């Protein structure tokens, strides 16, 4: 009975761990990935069309 209980837990571990890893990766992306600073202004639309 204990063996079947442990086997049942081991069977469901991947199904529960995937959402946990997804949430962890989203949290890490929010805090660790920095967006680059803007160095120049975008071209106005008229200048963009002329080029």
TrEMBL record:
InterPro entries in the cross-refs: MFS_trans_sf (IPR036259)
Organism (species): Mesobacillus boroniphilus JCM 21738
Membrane spanning stretches: 12-33
Name of this chain's protein: Siderophore transport protein
SUPFAM superfamilies xref list: MFS general substrate transporter (SSF103473)
Highest taxon, organism lineage: Bacteria
Keyword set, alphabetical order: Membrane, Transmembrane, Transmembrane helix
